[in-house]
Amino acid sequence: MAQKKSASVQGATKVRTRKTAAKAKNKPSNACEMPIKNSLTTRKSVDVSSGSEPELVNSALNRSGSSVKKIIKNSARRTKTLGTHSSQSADAVKIRSHGFKPKDFIVYPAHGVGQIIEIEVQEIAGLTLELFVITFEKDKMTLRVPTDKFESVGMRKLAESKTIEKAMSILKGRARVKRAMWSRRAQEYETKINSGDLISVSEVVRDLYRSDNQPEQSYSERQLYEQALDRMSREIAIVKELDDRRAIERITDILSISAKNRQSADEKVGDGNVRSDVEAA
Length: 281
What we know:
Elements: H1 2-26, H2 39-50, H3 53-98, E1 105-108, E2 112-124, E3 127-136, E4 141-146, E5 156-157, H4 161-171, H5 182-193, H6 198-208, H7 219-239, H8 244-280
Antiparallel strand pairs: 1-2, 1-5, 2-3, 3-4
Helix pairs in contact: 2-3, 4-6, 5-7, 6-7, 7-8
């Protein structure tokens, strides 16, 4: 009996052994047959078994986050560089558009002839402004004017030769004095002087000039005349490459000669009228 039980146990053991071997044969090997998706999945699966999954996941996220930060930082730097280049090119276009450059002489209506010593850029209240730095040597004054405001303030380049000749021809004409109160006339003269227009300034010089045979000017007339003469002579001096004294002499010579010619013409007309009256008598 005992021998039969021992044989049946051994047979059952052999059957279980065969079934286990068959299962082991059909099961894929982890080392050879399991597909590996990527390094992160492999390390994660290993770390799950060792109980350290959160640490590796966080370190992986930190590495990817730092890479994203680097990309964003580089992109921002690239954008900033492009913005700087575009602003610089815009400034260059702006400098070319106004047509002025350092060492140019200009006419500023309220102060006359000045010279641009530089074009500077300043940041004021968070805004970047491009400014003309203009010096007026005679007045010992320096003025800063935004480059985009030069037209509105009446700033201009020096007059061309044709304009100079036209202004000189105006000096040869007869004075046109309005019959109005001096205060009103003085205001009109001052407006013409501060207009910055050479033709208007020459009209003031012509109207306020007094020859030796004419009554003397009043103090206020003299002040306006000298101011207009100074504005006109300084512009002519630079354009014609003369000194200030020579330019003033050229203007006053024209005024004096024109006054004498008109006086001679008036005397001839007077003599003719007297002769006509004598003959008629």
